[in-house]
Specification:
This protein has about 160 residues and is mainly α. About 45% of the residues lie in helices and about 0% in strands.
Length: about 160
């Protein structure tokens, strides 16, 4: 989902008027709207899939994620591999359906965009992937049909070693 359509033009107009404050605020509001919509859709999914119909959670409960299920996204500590967005984009024809594009580094454009996966299992929890060893990177590279150097580049922040 995105709230960034037309944002660049709006921010460019503010900047042309030397109004950096409103340019920054427009970007911040668009980012928050995208995240809020993602949360709204997560609530809707919980209700429509049936396991959240009787939640009765307060706003504080929602903020503290006391609901069942999770909504991780590429880049979260549990799924650091951004390249998986390419598969998602292809399967769902995201660019055609939404106008959201992926950059060569798999960032979404417009920037005020959010993607993720819904997991409904009652025991699903957020978790962090620890630092990755060379053996894990080699296995990952083999499964993704990457060279080890490519895998190291994509997962650099999670390496437990310094690449050669």
């Amino acid at each position: 989902m995105t709230s960034g359509i037309g944002l660049k033009e709006l921010c460019d107009r503010f900047k042309a008027e030397n109004d950096d404050y409103n340019a920054i605020m427009a970007e911040a509001i668009a980012d928050r709207l995208a995240e809020a919509f993602a949360e709204c859709l997560h609530k809707r999914v919980r209700e429509e899939w049936g396991y959240g119909r009787e939640e009765g959670l307060s706003n504080a409960d929602l903020i503290h994620e006391k609901y069942r299920g999770i909504r991780p996204a590429a880049g979260y500590p549990a799924c650091p591999d951004h390249t998986e967005k390419g598969t998602l984009w292809d399967l769902l024809d995201v660019e055609k359906q939404t106008g959201i594009k992926l950059t060569e580094s798999f960032a979404m454009w417009p920037g005020s965009s959010v993607s993720g996966l819904y997991f409904a299992h009652p025991e699903s929890k957020y978790f962090a992937v620890g630092k990755l060893g060379k053996d894990q990177i080699e296995d990952f590279a083999k499964r993704k049909h990457f060279t080890v150097a490519e895998a190291e580049r994509w997962l650099g922040p999670w390496l437990n070693y310094t690449p050669a």
